[in-house]
Amino acid sequence: MRMFQLILLCLAGYIQYKLWLGHNGIQDYVHIKHAVVEHKETNTQLQKRNRLLKADIDDLKLGLEGVEERARHELDLIKKDETFIRVLPAKQP
Q1: CB-CB contact of 18 with 25 (8 Å)
Q2: What's the CA gap between 61 and 5, in Å, rounded?
């Protein structure tokens, strides 16, 4: 009877070890859960960026206003007979 109890105790210990520390145990579950949360955050940021890029593409397809706006802000281009004035912020001491 003592041998049977010892075997059951060893089996219970082995099962607990596998549950908490073994492959596909609780530690792996927690690690994977954190990885999923990080990937979801990354996907959310990428989806926002994709929506902005799609809006830019649609704006550029609609007309010349989008192209003109990009040329003015990114390339500092101006039209013929147009005066360009740049206001720089004051330097802080």
Answers
A1: yes
A2: 78
